Structures are given as structure tokens and as C-alpha cells.
Amino acid sequence: MTLTGLMAALTFVATAFIHINIPASTGYVNLGDAVILFAAVFIDPFAGALAGVIGAVLGDLYVGAASYVPFTIFAKLFEALVAGMLFKAFKGKWQFVAIPIGALLIVPCYALAYYLFGGWAMLLASSPFDLLQAAFSSGVAIALVLVLRKTKIKSLSEE
User: Fold this and answer.
1) What is the distance of C-alpha 85 from the center of its chain?
2) Is residue 159, in this structure, part of any structural domain at all?
3) pTM for this predicted structure
4) Which domain holds residue 58?
5) Does residue 98 lie within any of the structural domains?
6) Beta strand pairing status for 19-21 and 28-30?
């Protein structure tokens, strides 16, 4: 539980303070997903989901994007659960495919928000930034897992 709380705090910091606003919407690109994905595969899918929802929702509230909170809850929940569960199910190098699969689930969740808030124009202008966030966050999460494996630190999800 302590690690989950730490990951929620890191998710909040990476979401609220390490972000770039998207000009076409009230959304923003951030590094919170890297922490969520890492927690989901290195600790546990449910810990990643809980940390992701808590940290990202607090980040949305902090930066003034409260209208995105319902979409953030589903996006982070699905992202962590899918990435973490697939990571456990896949073996070898295939495990790492689970991370971008989970990360890409944020795209349809936020696409719905963009459409509801601003129609097709907002959706088409903002969704590429979510793809960029998913790709970058996946890369960071994969790098973190690889570095920790090299140091022989055992993943809690592998014990």
C-alpha cells in the first residue's frame, strides 16, 4: 500500500508539474502515464490503476481540467489494468508490448471527451497529442523496467 501511495504522489507530480498544454483544447500532455504504466507492470496492475486514478485526477484538478476527471478515471484505470495484466500474461520480450497497448487506451477515452467538449475539430486537433503521450510514456516506462531489471531489483509483480 505504501508503494501505491508513493506512485500516486509521483503520478500527481508528473501530471501536474511536468506537462505541456494542448493549444486546441483544455487538455495537456504529461508524464503521469509513465509512472502509471511502470507501477502497473512493476508493482501490480491494481496498484497501478489505483495510483493512476488518484494521481491523475488530483493532477487534473490542480491544473484546472476538472471537466476531464470522469474520462481520466476510465483512461487511467483501463491503461494500468490492461498493461499490467498483459505484462504478466506475456513472456520474455513480448511482455514489453503490453505497455504501449495499455498506454494507447487513453486515446479513445480522451477522444470521447474532446468530441463532447468541442466536436470533431477538437478531437482531430487534440488526439495526436494523446498518441504522442502514449508513445513517450511507454518508452519511459519500458526504460525504467529495463534499468531496474539490470540492477537485479525484483519486480513485485514477478514474485
Assistant:
1) 14
2) no
3) 0.92
4) 2-20+29-154
5) yes
6) antiparallel
The total domain count for the chain is 1
Domain CATH number, residue 133: 1.10.1760.20
97 CB-contact burial (10 Å; exposed 0-12 / middle 13-18 / buried 19+): middle
Each residue's pLDDT, cut to its tens digit, for the chain (159 residues) gives 889 999 999 999 999 998 787 776 667 788 999 999 999 999 999 999 999 999 999 999 999 999 999 999 999 999 999 999 999 999 998 999 999 999 999 999 999 999 999 999 999 998 999 999 999 999 999 999 999 988 877 666 655
Q: Which residue has the cell 501490480?
A: 44
Other C-beta atoms closer than 10 Å to the C-beta of 143 total 12
CA geometry: angle at 22 spanning 39 and 81, to 5°?
25
